[in-house]
Structures are given as structure tokens and as C-alpha cells.
């Protein structure tokens, strides 16, 4: 279970990188299209925007919930706490991303919080790795 916990936490951290890549692609595609005479409005989203939304609103929250469930069985010291924090910042990310559509300033917080998501998920993964190493270490005779 520690391995499952670690993999789920790492998937969230890697998901943040994928999210950054998809949104960068999306906006560079918009710039390219408008430079070529195209028009960008709410009816002309590209695959990058859609991927960013699906991953951010469905995939990462689902993985974060699974991480919390697995945390109860993984026997990672502090694992439940870090999984709960990870779920919290992922849910905050969804709220900030949704609110950013009406209040662009909130988009700044959405970008900053992405680093928090990656950071706490990485800490959770590191806790699982350390717990696994401690369990595998031979007991020293007294």
C-alpha cells in the first residue's frame, strides 16, 4: 500500500507539470492562431484548454481522493495528514481555477497554488519512500 500511496502522490505532482504544459500549449496556440488572422473567443477553445480543464477538474481530484483513501491503509507516518492536505490544495485549485474565469486576478492565485499542489504531493511521496526504506532496513542488534 505504501507503493500505491507513493505512486498516487507522484501522479499528482506530475499532473501539475502536465497541467502547466497543457495550458502553455493552449495559449501559445491562441497566439499563433490570432497572429495568423484567427479570432479567439469563448467559442474557439483548443485541445490544450480542454485537456487542462479535464485533468484539473476530474483527473487530479479523483487521484487526490484515492490518495486519501489509500493513506488509511498505507502505514506511512503522517500519510493521512499529507494526503488530506494534498486533497485540500487540489480542491482549492479547482475553486481558484473556476473563480478565475470571472475574476482574472484569482488566476494568479491559481498559478501560485499549483506550486503548493506539487509541493505537498511531493512531500507525501517522500514520506512514503522514507517509510518504505525504514521498513526494508535490517534491524540493528542491541
Care to describe what's here?
Keywords: Membrane, Transmembrane, Transmembrane helix. The chain crosses the membrane at residues 54-73, 80-99, 105-126. It is a single chain. The protein has 142 residues and is mostly helical. It has one domain (2-132). The chain contains four helices and no strands. The chain starts with a helix and ends in a 6-residue tail after the last helix.
List the helices and strands and how they pair.
Blueprint: H1 2-35, H2 47-74, H3 79-100, H4 104-136
Element-by-element helix/strand order: HHHH
The coarse overall form would be elongated
Number of structural units classed as domains: 1
User: How much helix, percentage-wise, in residues?
Assistant: over 70%
> What is the end-to-end distance?
30 Å
Q: Which structural class should the secondary elements be placed in?
A: mainly alpha
Largest sheet: none
Mean pLDDT figure:
91
Low-pLDDT runs? none
Please tally the β strands and state the result: 0
Put simply, the count of helices is: 4
Strand coverage percent? under 5%
Calculate Rg over CA atoms: 19 Å
